[in-house]
Amino acid sequence: MSFSDEHFMREAMKEAEKAKAKNEVPIGAIVVLKDEIVGRGHNLRETTQNAVTHAEMIAIQEACQRVGSWRLEEAVLYVTLEPCPMCSGAIILSRINKVVYGAVDPKAGCAGTLMNLLQDSRFNHQCELVSGVLERECSYMLSAFFKEIRVRKKQERKAVLDKNI
């Protein structure tokens, strides 16, 4: 039985929800091999105070451990936000076959927005690329998170001002 890209993107979105529950930027990723999820990850950068703990990096690392190889040649990575340069590099180096992402990242996207590292013929590996899967839902998850932060910070500033009056 073969699952759809939407099915697996919903699994990546579940990972993003885990990040949100930890006050992390809600980004989630999964690695799928032969219709089986072999790696899961969600952003943990704030929790770990480690710049490399992006959802994709964690999912790739888990998949490599589970498969017993650094080569994920037949794997598909699903991620709720377009991969950044670091994650794109890890995708290329792990030989992932296909990347499916939801929302574009206008500030760091390296799978078509700012540049396309995943399909650059100068590298020894390129990926099939599918963008915009459940894009509206993935984008909303991120924009709602950042809106919530802005509202909270505004309330905190107001409380400080009110206290000082």
Features:
single chain, five-stranded mixed beta sheet, 5 helices, 5 strands, APOBEC/CMP_deaminase_Zn-bd, tRNA-specific adenosine-34 deaminase activity, EC 3.5.4.33
Q: Can you describe what's shown?
A:
This protein is α/β, with parallel strands linked by helices. The chain is 44% helix and 18% strand. The protein contains five helices and five strands; from the N terminus they run H-E-E-H-H-E-H-E-E-H. It has helices at 5-21, 45-48, 55-67, 85-93, 135-164; strands at residues 28-33, 36-42, 76-81, 98-103, 128-131. The chain has a five-stranded mixed β-sheet. A hairpin with a 2-residue loop joins strand 1 and strand 2. The radius of gyration is 17 Å and the shape is elongated. The termini are far apart.
First-to-last CA distance: 65 Å
Percent range for helical residues?
40-55%
Averaged pLDDT: 96
Unreliable parts: none
The order of strands across the largest sheet is: 2-1-3-4-5
Q: Which overall shape is indicated by the principal axes computed on the Cα atoms?
A: elongated
> What is the tally of beta strands?
5
The topology string of helices and strands comes to HEEHHEHEEH
Radius of gyration: 17 Å
Report strand %.
15-25%
Number of helices: 5
Describe the largest sheet.
5 strands, mixed
Binding site for Zn(2+): 54, 84, 87
Active site: 56 (proton donor)
Protein name: tRNA-specific adenosine deaminase
Catalytic activity: adenosine(34) in tRNA + H2O + H(+) = inosine(34) in tRNA + NH4(+)
